[in-house]
Amino acid sequence: MTAFLTGFPGFLGSALTERLLARGESVTCLVQSHYREQARDRARAIRERVGVSDDSLTLVTGDITDSELGLDDPERHRREADACYHLAAIYDLGVDREPAEQVNVDGTGRVLDFAQRAAVDRLHYVSTCYVSGRHDGAFGPDDLDVGQSFNNHYEATKFEAEVAVQARMDDLPTTIYRPAIAVGDSETGATDKYDGLYYLLGLLDRQPGIAVAPVQPPSRRYEFNAVPRDFVVDAIAHLSGRADTAGAVYQLCDPNPPTVRRLVDICGEAVGSRVVRVPVHARLGRRFVERVPGLERLLGVEPASFDYLAHPTRYVCPNTSRALAGAGIECPPLASYVDDLVAYMRANPSVTDAAMA
């Protein structure tokens, strides 16, 4: 079995590549030219950990935004690919529309064309729970277009991309995975990017002893759904190895996420500070940070992240829970591993919130 994978050497793509090699597959990774050196180093380390030969993990230069994925010999790679894993995307809450459209929508269309012409046994597509946009209420694996609005171009373009993927599922055997907000490894805390939850952790950590945190006024119960990298990758590796998962959508989310108010307490305890909650309407907080010169840099917070302090959607994952039952794979509660996230963040200050693009 040879898997063709996009999104290497990214956060999830690297870990998933290691899982696929460990179960005996060969993997061909599509790598943008400016990540080539990083990809070589990461591939070398993965081969050594798994104990596989060099030809089990092949790096090819290309780009999902180019015709034929920028491959020198696309026909050969189509002929060799038994499965396709599409993880490449711009994950950036503040991304502009044009690059998000180019990568997340147009790029996904080109990967779909590649997979269909290759007649792969399966396409595995990594979407996001946040195709829900600002849907008010429960959002499950059978939901997609529910008339939602969107917080940002990232959400909107990932929605458009999944619409395109689902439109081809009758002709192209496909499994879709929708992670919630991905954070570091639950055992090591390791991550490649400090965004999402890390904006709050960093803000609190920069205020030792007593920390001020913005919290939506308590007019309703909002949840914050975070999942560690190892859960996401273990779930994809397990579900992708089963024939009965074709044609399904799996939301990889925390079935019992903390409320935002509880989240602030969890993060405060992890950094060792007592948190003083300041009532701030999320949309007003975002606009304030966007419009005051220098405030975004001072706070170290992406303005678009304020929207998730008052996100109205509740994610449910009944089929994921059933499919993972007995496999020893379940999403751990955030409070059980947040200390590891903080320890890694403090030990690795050079990591940024920059997205791969």
Detailed description of the structure:
This protein is an alpha/beta fold and 357 residues long. It folds into two domains: 2-182 and 226-252, NAD(P)-binding Rossmann-like Domain (Rossmann fold, 3-Layer(aba) Sandwich); 191-224 and 257-312 and 334-347. 38% of the residues lie in helices and 17% in strands. The chain has twelve helices and 13 strands. The protein has helices at 11-22, 36-50, 74-80, 97-118, 153-167, 197-205, 229-240, 260-271, 282-291, 295-299, 318-324, 338-347; strands spanning 2-6, 26-31, 57-61, 83-86, 122-126, 137-139, 174-179, 181-183, 210-215, 226-228, 249-252, 274-279, 313-315. The strands form four sheets. A seven-stranded parallel β-sheet has the order 3-2-1-4-5-7-11, sandwiched between helices. α4 (97-118) packs parallel to α5 (153-167). The chain starts with a strand and ends in a 10-residue tail after the last helix. The model has no long low-confidence stretch (mean pLDDT 95).
